[in-house]
Design a protein that fits this description.
The chain is mostly helical. The protein contains 18 helices and 5 strands. Strands 1-2-3 form a 3-stranded antiparallel β-sheet. It has a two-stranded antiparallel sheet with strand order 4-5. A hairpin with a 7-residue loop joins strand 4 and strand 5. Helix 1 packs across helix 2, helix 2 (37-56) crosses helix 13 (204-233) and helix 13 (204-233) runs antiparallel to helix 14 (235-249). It is extended.
């Protein structure tokens, strides 16, 4: 007897994505201790960042940027800078602060700088150590062995070799120090392995690579989890649109919000599809058809529907006007040419 796979609703799919990151975090950062306070903190931070983005882009502002429902008159910048009693009591009505835009004011840099150190640290630029040894903890037995085990690299913050020392002896003359200059530390490790030069298990070259890659994965996994949570919190229409803005700003995959953003009752769905395509999205992307189904529809199929946005209608009208103008101009030129021919003796 075949057991049908359970159909996950949108919230369950999104929860699974967030939980995948949490499981990785528990394994890599908390040594399998799921009750660690670090796990609780990372979950809280995912929520905090999702809420920050909601405060920065309230539903009615998202609706102005990528229409989803009827428009509200309220503007968040007006509320924050013109109808704010604290500002009104301190500054006059002609103050430059009145011209500020809330989303620019409450920007990403300001948000990160205001975080406590533990959270702020996750956004620090990932850098390589400037000095890494092949065998940092060796026991020297002789002068030659001592010199041989002093092999080390001076690295840039991006992991490229500025200079190398001790590799002639360490490699038994298979590699020169000059040969390594300008290479990335990953390339150095690969070269050593190609030359059958064994690296100690505790070497700092591979440790530095692992450390940087883990930090990058942590940051990217965190941002992806926040994006999923933004979709989840914002319901069928607003969530994916807000997550789309987040994806563009933080260089995440714009396919994700589009994949979860199809609501066939949404009269402005085509607006969202067009924004996705203009941002470089793929017409082949398969999107979930609804909340409780595994059925999908491609972006191309969505574009082939008969309803058009006002922007598309305006573009079509401009094209028609341009063609009509071209035809009229050509006719006028033809008539002038005919007239000249008639007048020519």
């Amino acid at each position: 007897m075949k057991i049908k796979n359970k159909t996950l609703n949108k919230e369950e799919r999104l929860d699974n994505k967030i939980n995948e990151f949490i499981k990785w975090y528990i394994k890599e950062e908390c040594k399998e201790n799921e009750n660690s306070h670090y796990v609780k903190n990372i979950k809280k931070f995912i929520e905090k960042m999702a809420v920050w983005y909601e405060l920065r882009y309230p539903d009615y502002e998202i609706n102005k940027l990528i229409p989803a429902t009827g428009q509200e008159i309220i503007k968040v910048s007006d509320v924050m800078f013109n109808r704010n009693n604290y500002i009104n009591d301190l500054l006059d009505e002609n103050s430059d602060v009145r011209a500020l835009d809330w989303d620019e004011f409450y920007n990403t840099s300001a948000f990160i700088k205001a975080l406590p150190w533990e959270e702020r640290n996750m956004f620090q630029r990932v850098k390589y150590k400037d000095l890494v040894y092949v065998n940092p903890y060796c026991m020297f037995r002789s002068l030659v062995e001592s010199q041989r085990n002093m092999a080390h690299l001076h690295l840039t913050s991006n992991g490229f070799v500025e200079s190398a020392e001790g590799f002639v002896l360490y490699s038994h003359y298979k590699i020169t120090n000059e040969q390594l200059k300008g290479m990335h530390v990953k390339e150095v490790v690969n070269l050593l392995k190609e030359k059958n030069i064994t690296l100690p298990s505790d070497n700092e070259l591979e440790a530095a690579i692992d450390s940087v890659e883990k930090r990058i994965k942590l940051k990217e996994g965190l941002l992806d989890a926040v994006m999923y949570r933004i979709i989840e919190r914002g319901r069928e229409r607003i969530g994916p649109r807000r997550a789309f803005l987040f994806a563009k700003e933080f260089e995440r995959d714009i396919d994700v919000p589009m994949k979860y953003g199809v609501d066939f009752t949404d009269p402005y769905l085509r607006n969202f599809v067009n924004e996705y395509i203009k941002a470089g999205g793929s017409k082949d992307l398969k999107c979930y058809c609804g909340n409780n189904t595994n059925e999908t529809v491609s972006v191309e199929e969505l574009l082939l529907t008969e309803w058009y946005t006002q922007e598309e209608k305006d573009l079509q009208q401009r094209l028609v006007n341009s063609l009509a103008s071209y035809v009229d101009s050509k006719k006028l030129e033809d008539k002038k040419r005919e007239s000249k021919l008639k007048c020519t003796p």
